[in-house]
Amino acid sequence: MAGNPFKDQDNSDLFADDPFRDSSINSALQNGNSARHLIDDDSDAVPLHPVRRSEDEGGFFSGMGRVGFGSAYSPIGAGADAKDDGSDQTTRNAYSNNSKLADGDRSYLKPSGNYPADSREAELRQREEALEARERELLAREAHVQSMASGVRPALNFPPLYPVMYHSIDIEVPIGDRRTVRTIFYLWLALEALLVFNCVACLVVMISGGKDLSNTGATFGSSFVYLFTISAGSFFLWYRPVYNAYMKDSSMFFYLFFVFNGFHILFDAYMAVGVPSAGSAGMIIMLQSLSSGKKAAGVLCGISFSLWALHFLASLFMYRKVRKHYSARGHTFAEAKQQAYAGFAQSGAGQAAVSTAAGAYIRSNTGNF
């Protein structure tokens, strides 16, 4: 087979053998009227594309691999060069249909807009919808409670095993104060667990019976009593008052919390010290157990001492936080006394006392006449 007549003999000039550079054609192109006619009348013109050096060296069949069998013929280099230039939209579409994996073609990587949303965004959207639904539920429950008649409360729900009162931070406490009240409630629950652990540690100390330990029976007995007295007293004397204080924005309940929670903070410090016969497995009992060689009792007392110290610090922190809230709200001691007098007068005991005093006064004045 004869060589390719269109193949360049000298690679220095790609268009050295271009037949369109004939002198007759160049003279026709230099004619002004003919040039204008050729330039203006381009309805039947076929766009020419530059031939790549690699395809030029490979000959006519070098571009056959880029065109699928049965497809229309496209000029050599039309697919890639026209796509890069962006001037011939029709050629670019034809090329993309024939070869989706052509060099530089990344259309198959672009999302069409019909794919599902990213999994992380979908998860965040679901969480947001769940939180909004939860908030709507809480607002509805709060509105239901507020719409009830005065003096009417929902069903009792606390404590769980033997409910004697209604307790719901998410409904009765304002939204901005729920975190503070819930933290104090967790501190109260931690106190209950700490009292149980302290009682167990005192029991181990009593059973171990070290020579440097004395009155271990009294220590255990006191710790057992604390399980009931301190539990009930802490709930009704400082937790329930701070719950009512935030719920009703009452100065009187804030003062009750300040007084009795202050005693509770001192009680935490007292239990951390671990005075013998005082019902505490604190630092002193820990040292006595270790000096007697009772390692198990010493370890339990050391844990008890650490927990009492942590509870002391946490209670002190929350005490100061409630104090700042009290000052920011503008409550005063005079307001607390006024609320205490009004509450006592409205209570059954106050009304009975007023009735008794009024009857005694009337009888005394009647007897004078």
From TrEMBL:
<keyword id="KW-1133">Transmembrane helix</keyword>
<feature type="region of interest" description="Disordered">
    <location>
        <begin position="80"/>
        <end position="126"/>
    </location>
</feature>
<keyword id="KW-0812">Transmembrane</keyword>
<protein>
    <recommendedName>
        <fullName>Scamp-domain-containing protein</fullName>
    </recommendedName>
</protein>
<feature type="compositionally biased region" description="Polar residues">
    <location>
        <begin position="23"/>
        <end position="34"/>
    </location>
</feature>
<dbReference type="GO" id="GO:0015031">
    <property type="term" value="P:protein transport"/>
</dbReference>
<feature type="transmembrane region" description="Helical">
    <location>
        <begin position="296"/>
        <end position="319"/>
    </location>
</feature>
<feature type="transmembrane region" description="Helical">
    <location>
        <begin position="185"/>
        <end position="208"/>
    </location>
</feature>
<dbReference type="InterPro" id="IPR007273">
    <property type="entry name" value="SCAMP"/>
</dbReference>
<feature type="transmembrane region" description="Helical">
    <location>
        <begin position="220"/>
        <end position="240"/>
    </location>
</feature>
<dbReference type="GO" id="GO:0032588">
    <property type="term" value="C:trans-Golgi network membrane"/>
</dbReference>
<dbReference type="Pfam" id="PF04144">
    <property type="entry name" value="SCAMP"/>
</dbReference>
<dbReference type="GO" id="GO:0055038">
    <property type="term" value="C:recycling endosome membrane"/>
</dbReference>
<feature type="region of interest" description="Disordered">
    <location>
        <begin position="1"/>
        <end position="60"/>
    </location>
</feature>
<feature type="compositionally biased region" description="Polar residues">
    <location>
        <begin position="88"/>
        <end position="100"/>
    </location>
</feature>
<feature type="transmembrane region" description="Helical">
    <location>
        <begin position="252"/>
        <end position="273"/>
    </location>
</feature>
<keyword id="KW-0472">Membrane</keyword>
